[in-house]
Amino acid sequence: MLKTGVFCGIQHSMGFTRAENVLVLLKLADFFQVDWLIKRCDLHLISCLEIPLIDRFLLIGHYRLPNLKNFFLHLSVDNLRIFLKENSDKLASLIDSQIAGKLFFELCIRLVTA
Questions:
Q1: How many Cβ atoms from other residues are within 10 Å of residue 14's Cβ?
Q2: Strand (E) or helix (H) holding 31
Q3: How many CB atoms lie within 10 A of CB 23?
Q4: Exposed site from 2, 29, 80, 101, fewest CB < 10 Å?
Q5: Per-residue pLDDT, 23
Q6: Would you list the domain boundaries of the chain?
Q7: Cα-trace Rg, the chain
Q8: pLDDT in the model for residue 1
Q9: Superkingdom of this entry's organism (predicted)?
Q10: Can you tell me the distance from the alpha carbon of 75 to that of 15, in angstroms, rounded to the nearest whole number?
């Protein structure tokens, strides 16, 4: 009942007016296990330019965002190379995170085989 009460107004008038809203809603949706809201946040994060790309990448591991993960897996080789080079310091810490580390490995393999 709490889940429905907290999120009932969000479902019908979903508008992410600020990037911070997406992050707060994603945290709440994860905590209360509101799958439809997690999916909406996942889809919105793909085109949310207010949040840096590396920060969006780091959300994939914690929240398991399949659409955002797919976005990164389909980056062009040139864009992928730029992304990895510009964010190498933050990406080095992903070894500890199994999901994000696996995705990072997949991106590196794709870059090498291109």
A1: 13
A2: helix 19-32
A3: 18
A4: 2
A5: 96
A6: 2-113
A7: 15
A8: 41
A9: Eukaryota
A10: 26
The series of mean pLDDT values per 10 residues for the chain, 114 residues long, is 50 66 96 97 96 94 94 94 90 70 82 80
pLDDT, position 21: 92
CA distance 48 to 42: 10
pLDDT at 2: 45
Residue 52 carries which side chain, given as an amino acid letter? P
Residue type, 7: F
Note the residue count of the chain.
114
* 63: Cα separation from own chain's centroid: 7
Helix (H), strand (E) at residue 77: helix 77-86
- The DSSP-derived string for 38-50 is HHHHHHHHHT-TT
Please tell me the pTM assigned to this model: 0.78
* Amino acid sitting at position 111: L
